[in-house]
């Protein structure tokens, strides 16, 4: 301080001596912060203000130093005596100080010796207190750590016991409650670092359990579905039995709900319920068949871990994959009903599990998810069934498939899944079922026709008569009055066909069972399918039968009789359907059976075939004709082939007496068929004989041959006049031979003048003789060679007769050419 003050004074004096003015701020005010500013300012003034200032400054500085040295010397001289006195006193004190030091050292030694034991005891006390404090601290820390260690040990036990959900809860307690208390310890850090690994282990283990569960339910889906479908079927059958009992209680007959009459349903239902009673105590649920604990555990674990969404996505993804596998059918599924049953049970098992998961968990499976999955599955199921059912040709297999689909639909409907599209599919399968039935019954009808003998049914006694009547609704009062043995007009195929049509109705009715349709719809379906059977299948079989070569005229006549009785039985078939469905025929929308038109068409076809075969038979006989067209004299009797033909025709027309005449309509019908057949035969015979005369290969005909031919025509006329079939008026049948008769009379009488004179007049005697026909026959009779001696008798009587023939030929040619001239005969 003094030094600073002195320097300041020196600088100030120097500056004043140099004539430099400088405002110096007190250095003490800011603690000497401006001390160095003074020299800097002074030096700047020395060098900047005046020339030669430096030299002057150095001189002044030396003078100032000398002055100060003098002042310092004065000051030291002034204080020297005091300094010396102080040293002297200090030397005196040193002796006392050494004595005091010796005393203090001795006292300290004695004190140290006396305090050694105390120090030892004190150290012991300190050490004990430290230990006591440490023990207390350790106890306190252990009280904090022991629960943590116990919980961690509990965690390990839970992991070992696979109680993973409890282990996760324990981890939460450790993290939230226990670890914060002991977080400063290293073992706690190790535990904290180990918990994420344990969580991952739990996730992997639970996911592995879930995978095992998914694999297990995939293998057991068919068993689950089988149980569910069996329970649904038993529930339905129980409802049917209960409803039947109520109907019996109220005196009602039940058809539609059972879809079959009661006596048939009892046969079907009784064994089922006997089995149900035996197994009543063994009703299993899906929980009994499947252990769902892996799903619950995994769901809870992922929920605790906050990763529930990952678990849900994985579960749904895997289940969708399994659904696609379940919905993929085997290639040969359509071959047996077991293939379809296995397919349905797996699907039912899949959705039963999903429904259970939906109701026992929250969020893992939602209703929207199951609906989406079901809609996807339903579309696939319908496509699969539509494709595979198209391969089914056995109606029994199609019916079993329908029953499986109904049980399948009822089962899933009980779990809340919409199944209307399945019942719509059943209507498509119903059409296919009807087609397979029609094919099957076509074979049945063919077998019946093949086994039929096409002869009336012989009845020996009353028992046989009642047996036939019980199978076929036949009523004939006149026949009932006859004594045994007797014959029914139809053949064995008629009651068999009637029975098979009823069986077809029963078979068609079986498919309508449990389709949830009204009685009116069932009735309409039965009638439509029966109409298809009659109009398509039976009609086709009848037409094919009629066209078969081995079916003769007798068989055709019997077929006509059979179709007549089948036509009459159609009203009984309608009554049969009405009794089944309880729908009156008077209902506005009731479909009628088309059996009447079917059997009429078959009968008309049979009649046409009779006419055709009869004409073919006539042609066969005519082909046996062996005329000697150059014979001079006739044999005097008709040709053998013609007599055989007439006898054949008599026997054939005798068969027509068997045609049914039990009513006026049928009597008229049978008479018409017989008359038409007889007229057709006579006309065809007449035409065949005429063609024989006019055959282009026949070059010449003698008068003897004409006379012989006339004898054959006379036999034909006698046959026609003998009324082989009753009902013809007058000589209607004989008119079939009028063309031949007039032509032969013209040549036999040689009445050319009358023919040519009356030609073209309505009352002409030879109105049916065509000029062209007469010309052709006349030219065959001309004497065109030496061998021809036809006109020898005319030459003997009148040689001019040859010219007459030539004139007739010219006139006939003129008529053929449309020119008519006068005759000079």
TrEMBL record:
<dbReference type="Pfam" id="PF20651">
    <property type="entry name" value="EXOC6_Sec15_N"/>
</dbReference>
<dbReference type="InterPro" id="IPR042044">
    <property type="entry name" value="EXOC6PINT-1/Sec15/Tip20_C_dom2"/>
</dbReference>
<keyword id="KW-0268">Exocytosis</keyword>
<feature type="domain" description="Exocyst complex component EXOC6/Sec15 N-terminal">
    <location>
        <begin position="60"/>
        <end position="229"/>
    </location>
</feature>
<keyword id="KW-0813">Transport</keyword>
<comment type="similarity">
    <text>Belongs to the SEC15 family.</text>
</comment>
<dbReference type="GO" id="GO:0005886">
    <property type="term" value="C:plasma membrane"/>
</dbReference>
<comment type="function">
    <text>Component of the exocyst complex involved in the docking of exocytic vesicles with fusion sites on the plasma membrane.</text>
</comment>
<dbReference type="GO" id="GO:0090522">
    <property type="term" value="P:vesicle tethering involved in exocytosis"/>
</dbReference>
<dbReference type="GO" id="GO:0006893">
    <property type="term" value="P:Golgi to plasma membrane transport"/>
</dbReference>
<protein>
    <recommendedName>
        <fullName>Exocyst complex component</fullName>
    </recommendedName>
</protein>
<dbReference type="InterPro" id="IPR007225">
    <property type="entry name" value="EXOC6/Sec15"/>
</dbReference>
<dbReference type="Pfam" id="PF04091">
    <property type="entry name" value="Sec15_C"/>
</dbReference>
<dbReference type="InterPro" id="IPR048359">
    <property type="entry name" value="EXOC6_Sec15_N"/>
</dbReference>
<dbReference type="InterPro" id="IPR046361">
    <property type="entry name" value="EXOC6/Sec15_C"/>
</dbReference>
<dbReference type="GO" id="GO:0006886">
    <property type="term" value="P:intracellular protein transport"/>
</dbReference>
<dbReference type="GO" id="GO:0000145">
    <property type="term" value="C:exocyst"/>
</dbReference>
<dbReference type="InterPro" id="IPR042045">
    <property type="entry name" value="EXOC6/Sec15_C_dom1"/>
</dbReference>
<feature type="domain" description="Exocyst complex subunit EXOC6/Sec15 C-terminal">
    <location>
        <begin position="422"/>
        <end position="780"/>
    </location>
</feature>
């Amino acid at each position: 301080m003094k030094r600073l003050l002195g320097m300041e004074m020196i600088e100030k004096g120097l500056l004043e001596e140099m004539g430099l003015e400088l405002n110096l701020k007190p250095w003490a005010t800011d603690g000497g912060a401006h001390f160095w500013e003074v020299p800097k300012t002074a030096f700047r003034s020395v060098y900047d203000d005046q020339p030669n200032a430096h030299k002057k400054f150095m001189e002044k500085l030396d003078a100032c130093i000398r002055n100060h040295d003098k002042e310092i010397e004065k000051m030291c001289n002034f204080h020297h005596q005091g300094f010396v006195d102080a040293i002297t006193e200090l030397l005196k004190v040193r002796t006392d100080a050494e004595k005091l030091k010796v005393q203090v050292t001795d006292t300290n030694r004695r004190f140290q010796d006396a305090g050694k034991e105390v120090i030892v005891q004190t150290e012991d006390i300190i050490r004990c207190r430290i230990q006591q404090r440490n023990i207390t601290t350790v106890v306190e820390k252990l009280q904090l750590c022991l629960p943590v260690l116990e919980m961690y040990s509990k965690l390990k036990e839970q992991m070992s016991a696979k109680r993973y959900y409890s282990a996760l809860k324990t981890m939460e307690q450790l993290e939230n409650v226990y670890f914060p208390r002991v977080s400063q310890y290293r073992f706690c850090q190790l535990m904290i670092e180990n918990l994420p690994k344990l969580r991952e282990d739990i996730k992997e283990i639970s996911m592995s359990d879930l995978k095992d569960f998914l694999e297990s339910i995939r293998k057991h889906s068919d068993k689950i579905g089988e149980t569910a479908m069996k329970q649904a079927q038993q529930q339905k059958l129980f409802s049917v039995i209960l409803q039947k009992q109520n109907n019996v209680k109220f005196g009602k007959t039940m058809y539609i709900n059972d879809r079959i009459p009661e006596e048939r349903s009892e046969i079907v239902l009784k064994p089922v319920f006997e089995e149900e009673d035996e197994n009543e105590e063994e009703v299993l649920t899906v929980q009994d068949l499947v252990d769902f604990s892996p799903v619950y555990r995994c769901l809870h674990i992922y929920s605790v871990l906050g990763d529930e969404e990952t678990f849900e996505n994985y579960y749904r993804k895997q289940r969708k994959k399994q659904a696609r596998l379940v919905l993929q059918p085997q290639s040969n599924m359509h071959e047996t009903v077991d293939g379809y049953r296995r397919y349905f049970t797996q699907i039912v098992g899949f959705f039963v599990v999903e429904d259970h998961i939906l109701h026992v968990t929250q969020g893992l499976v939602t209703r929207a998810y199951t609906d989406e999955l079901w809609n996807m599955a339903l579309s696939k199921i319908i496509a699969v069934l539509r494709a595979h059912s198209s391969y089914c040709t056995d109606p029994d297999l199609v019916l079993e498939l329908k029953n499986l689909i109904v049980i399948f639909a009822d089962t899933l409907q009980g779990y809340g899944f919409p199944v209307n599209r399945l019942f719509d599919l059943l209507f498509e399968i119903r059409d296919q079922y009807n087609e397979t039935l029609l094919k099957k019954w076509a074979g049945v009808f063919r077998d019946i026709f093949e086994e039929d003998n096409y002869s009336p049914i012989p009845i020996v006694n009353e028992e046989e008569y009642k047996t036939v009547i019980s199978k076929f609704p036949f009523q004939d009062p006149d026949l009932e009055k006859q004594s045994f043995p007797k014959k029914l007009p139809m053949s064995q195929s008629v009651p068999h066909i009637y029975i098979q049509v009823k069986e077809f109705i029963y078979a068609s009715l079986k498919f309508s069972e449990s389709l949830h349709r009204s009685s009116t719809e069932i009735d309409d379906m039965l009638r439509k399918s029966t109409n298809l059977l009659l109009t398509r299948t039976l009609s086709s079989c009848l037409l094919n039968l009629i066209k078969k070569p081995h079916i003769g005229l007798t068989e055709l006549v019997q077929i006509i009789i059979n179709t007549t009785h089948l036509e009459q039985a159609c009203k009984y078939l309608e009554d049969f359907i009405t009794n089944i469905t309880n729908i009156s025929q008077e209902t506005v929308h009731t479909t009628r059976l088309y059996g009447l038109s079917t059997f009429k068409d078959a009968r008309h076809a049979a009649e046409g075939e009779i006419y055709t075969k009869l004409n073919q038979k006539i042609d066969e006989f005519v082909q046996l004709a062996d005329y000697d067209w150059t014979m001079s004299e006739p044999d005097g009797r008709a040709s053998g082939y013609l007599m055989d033909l007439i006898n054949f025709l008599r026997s054939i027309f005798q068969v027509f007496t068997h045609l049914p005449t039990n009513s006026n309509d049928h009597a008229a019908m049978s008479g018409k068929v017989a008359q038409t057949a007889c007229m057709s035969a006579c006309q065809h015979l007449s035409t065949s004989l005429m063609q024989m005369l006019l055959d282009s290969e026949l070059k010449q005909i003698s008068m003897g041959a004409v006379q012989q031919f006339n004898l054959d025509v006379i036999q034909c006329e006698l046959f026609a006049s003998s009324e082989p079939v009753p009902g013809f008026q007058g000589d209607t049948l004989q008119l079939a031979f009028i063309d031949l008769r007039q032509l032969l009379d013209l040549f036999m009488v040689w009445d050319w003048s009358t023919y040519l004179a009356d030609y073209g007049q309505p009352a002409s005697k030879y109105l049916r003789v065509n000029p062209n026909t007469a010309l052709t026959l006349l030219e065959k009779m001309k004497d065109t060679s030496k061998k021809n001696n036809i006109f020898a008798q005319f030459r003997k009587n009148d040689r001019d007769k040859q010219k007459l023939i030539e004139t007739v030929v010219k006139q006939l040619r003129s008529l053929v050419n449309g020119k008519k001239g006068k005759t000079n005969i």
